[in-house]
Amino acid sequence: MRTDRRGSLGLLAAGAVFPLVRPPRSRELRFGLTPVVLDDDRVLMEGLEGYLRRVTNFDVLIVRRRTYQEITTLLLAGQLDAAWICGYPFVQFRDRLELVAVPLWRGRPLYRSYVIVPADGTAERLSDLRGTVHAFSDPDSNSGWLATTAELVRRGEEPGRFFRHVFFTYAHRKVARAVAARLADGGSIDGYVFEVLREVEPELAARCRVLRRSPLFGFPPVACRRLDAGSEPVLRLREALLAMAEEPDGRAVLAHLRLDGFTAGTPDLFGSIAANARLVARALG
To answer: Which CATH superfamily is domain 113-214 in?
Structure first.
């Protein structure tokens, strides 16, 4: 049975922990990032921070954590103005979160989840992975946990019984590394991340093969608390993201991310993620 992460996050966000981010300074934008998009890339981080600082006219504090749960907790607790999260926590806390902007990849605010296997592996379909070791990225990731789990549930299965062993890497890139090194017989990964890996780490990507592509989902969004949706930092951030493709330094950041820009987006983009979340919650408790 899966832990009730919504309940535990609610307790944390309600103040059951000490503050994890220092109080905001005057005219400071606190922006959280999860491993859903960025790995350890200093040049990208500096470019993003510099662009946001220039366009918003706010000091910018980039906050990063290892897991989605940590960033979601900080966002819900009001210790971040906004965060680039995953569609799964967005739908879990839809009553408390609002969209700020949604990235455009290949012209659309959409992406897929992939199941990958070693390039020279014999598996041809998901059912061939029964009894194997599987790498997930994060228990609060749509592409790195929920999408595969929902597909198994639709087949009358669940990860704990279908796979011999599962583990979490807490980064999509590390899922690819685990599969390439044969630490796992398969892995669930963000399709956008894997396609970017084909460009930036082609030797790693070549050691993996895409076994299954999911239907399209809404791309991991930038979100804020509903209570903060009209605040100046959030409004300035939204303007900056929507204008990013029009600014030279913004285009440089987008090129690094292999994104085309940002759009306002609508919550219905995440309807299929919400449906999968309900399906899995009913099946696994």
So the answer is: Periplasmic binding protein-like II (3.40.190.10)
